[in-house]
Amino acid sequence: MDWGGLRVGIGPAGGRACEDGRVARDKTTKNRLTVETLHDKKEPPRAATMPWWLAAIGGAVVAAVCGWALVAALVLVAQLAGVGSVSAEGLILSTKVWLLAHGGQLTVGGTHVTLIPLGLTVIIAVILHGVAGYAGKQDLLAHGEVHQASATWKVAGVVAGVYAVVVQTADFLVSDGAPQPRVGLAAAVLAVVLAFFGARKAIHWDLWGRWPVWARVVPRAIGVGVLVAFIGGTIALVAGLVSKRAEFVTLTEQLNPGWAGGVVLTLVQLLFVVTLAIWCMTWTFGPGFTVGDGSVISLAGSQVGLLPAFPITAAIPTETSSANLLWLAVPVLAGAASAVMVLRARPRARFDETALVGGLVGVGAGLGVVGVSLASIGSLGTDRLAHVGPFWMPLLVIAPCIMGLGAMITGFVVGLIRRPAAATGHRWWARWSSGDESDVPSVEQTDGGSEHANPKPSEESTRVGDATAATATGTTASTAPASTPTVLDPTQPLDLADRPAPPQDVQLPLDFHPGER
Q1: Comparing C-alpha atoms, which of 280, 260, 287 is closest to residue 81?
Q2: Is 152 strand, coil or helix?
Q3: Is the pLDDT reported for residue 296 higher than 60?
Q4: Considering the entire predicted model, what is its pTM?
Q5: 331 and 253: one domain?
């Protein structure tokens, strides 16, 4: 018991002190009072290393430079391997590829490319999340206590504003024609979302705290459903790559990139592997995707024309088989995963509530899948490859339906199986009784005829024996707990020698020590 900076414990006089401050008990009935001083081991308070606004501005610039440097390294290595020198055109091309990750347009030899390398976008997003969290931490360390909402939004606004300005300036410098305002807008949206969640986490703002209890887990459950669906698409992509590894090797040998070119080719394919995984994710839902020229790749059937000269395109699932329908388990499992998140957050919820909220998060996760698929639509040129990516209109109907149905069924079945049994007349102190529920006091009649529940006995009164007694013959009789709990006077010694022993034929509480009397 902690009391006024002291730890007070009662144990047998013949006990043996342990390393953690407890006292080992023996069979003696004498007790002693042990007191030890509590020393709080707190780390010294940390101080901010820089102003939050400087960290936000510098972090935004660092995120932009890191993303550009990653692309520039690939292009410059390719130039060195090809012609043995580095030119300004390589730096301009690196900047255009970096802008492509923000929704820009890359023009190479009259070919217009708008397909976003989502792998690079994910890397940039991770950096933005980290630098915003660092800036938010500096604000918290500098002021000790901050208004969490305003502090989060100001950090996110500064990071997003500076990052958008850097991206739009780079587009203005390398653009052949008029600048692309959508690049700066897309960069601002990406930065404000990632910076918001990064700063919120560092400032410890409970964003969902004011939501209803049943709704607090909904955003996390939707995210889990989208993640499971994406993992299913990744598995489908890897399965296609394993089954067609011979074609992958053949395409790589035909390109003959050399060792340096091979490294660059591998890294470039990794930048687009997230995009291909999203395509395969939509394939597991049924509608599938297109690679231009009227081609269709879906579970029901595939019509494929010429594919881009990337070895990883060999992993695209183009075979038509009835076994492909087994991949429909991916969206069902994704919806079930969303429902499981709801069930974990509400372990005592009724089955109707779990089914309703499960269906809700399943539909939300399906809409999230559609939003992710929209980001993977683009072009790899003109004419035949003018449009590549998922068929988002059919997916808008199928994804929420199938994931919502899977989540609702999962929530209903699991909630029905684990629903709590009725606990009428049972109280937690009934385990000290003889097992007869009639002896357990639950309500009492007043003079007015109304029923009122007996007050719950306190833990202290139960420990000193106010709730139960044991008879000499081994049988027990339950008595009503005292309406007024016993108040312990710390200045008076405690005499627990006459404390009645608990009955031997009932389950003991977890905090009961057999040696105590």
Answers
A1: 260
A2: helix
A3: yes
A4: 0.70
A5: yes
